[in-house]
Amino acid sequence: MQTQYLRGKDLADKMQKAMKNRVDRLREEGKVPGLTVVLVGEDKASQVYVRNKERRAHKVGIKSDVIRLPETTSESELLTIIQTLNADKSVHGILVQLPLPKQIDEQKILRSIDYEKDVDGFHPMNMGNFLLGNESTLPCTPYGIMTLLKSYDIAFEGKKALVIGRSNIVGKPMALMLMNENATVTIAHSHTQNLKALAKEADILVVAIGKGHLVDADYVKQGAIVIDVGMNRDAAGKLIGDVNTEAIDGIASYVTPVPGGVGPMTITMLLEQTIQKVEKD
Ligand SMILES: Nc1nc(=O)c2c([nH]1)NC[C@@H]1CN(c3ccc(C(=O)N[C@@H](CCC(=O)O)C(=O)O)cc3)C=[N+]21
Known about the structure:
The chain has helices spanning 8-28, 44-60, 75-87, 106-112, 124-132, 140-151, 171-180, 195-199, 262-279, and strands at residues 4-5, 34-40, 63-69, 93-96, 160-164, 184-188, 204-207, 225-228, 232-233, 239-240, 254-255. By secondary structure, the chain is α/β, with parallel strands linked by helices. It folds into 2 domains: 31-114, Leucine Dehydrogenase, chain A, domain 1 (Rossmann fold, 3-Layer(aba) Sandwich), CATH 3.40.50.10860; 140-263, NAD(P)-binding Rossmann-like Domain (Rossmann fold, 3-Layer(aba) Sandwich), CATH 3.40.50.
């Protein structure tokens, strides 16, 4: 079987080109979409993501600001900044980069963001509405993955899906989205037994565990669709996924590359949801 790459980067470029036209139209009406990213600390990987988001936002015409705060920022200092952004009419989207330093309660911060400006879909109001099937902002990574799969006309109906990883921002919402598309979904995590055997049964395998090249041919059924959410660095500092893509070549039907797969789609959905906030205004 010839394994095909699901090229998130290509779809992201195409979608962002169309977004540019929508933003141009909004700007003609005097509406300039504004996205503010708050980055606490010096985490190197986070800095790269933030720079990527900023560059892409500017390219589609979104006014993007980054507030960089020191690692030692207190919870109350961060809450004050969020209150200012909540009240600022030129800010349509607020993203507080996770993870936050340990002195800051992440859930408390996410709750403090005006849920109508939560373009990540992490606010409990959005998470709750999403769980209930109501309209909501969606977590960008799983939303991007679903958008990518649909663009390749991949069907979900009755398929066996396994999501490895149960985080609030990827695993849990991913499982729910697959379920909503009528897949039969299993969630695996660090306590799961016989992971390889379980994975081998999956028609759709989503890997979000943060262990470089963990998934190889032993985990993948002939013809399976494999989604790699991993962002790890190897010994040489190169970005590698959770999936050893070379090892499953000829086994999987489709696989997302790293880089150029899920990451660019995450950013695209963030921009999409920011523009939607302004269009609905
Ligand atoms: N509140 C919050 N929202 C997030 O969405 C969020 C977050 N916190 N914390 C960190 C993670 C990570 N994340 C990435 C997004 C895009 C790429 C991306 O574009 N990656 C490129 C290349 C990156 C490179 O070359 O280093 C790619 O995969 O092709 C990566 C990682 C968003 N996150």
